[in-house]
Amino acid sequence: xxxxxxxxxxxxxLTMAIEDALNxxxxxxxxxxxxxxxxxxxxxxxxxxEHPDYLANVLKQTFGYAHVVIIKKIKKNIGEFxxxxxxEEFIRVLSR
Length: 96
Known about the structure:
This protein is an all-alpha fold.
């Protein structure tokens, strides 16, 4: 199978969906989450695709119950991509 270098990977698409959801919450939200991820786990949003628990913990610690709104926005941004098994698992872990 030939890969199209111009097409983002599934991990990149998921990361963009997360970034968009955080940006929808307001300007500093993405920066706050990125900073906390780095401080606590030495990782980035892209790393959270493999470790959704990191993102879940940061969202809960930072936003309390409002983290539910961010997760809903992430699900909305993922769209039809959400039916893929790895993405389903990501959302399941994030929603715990």
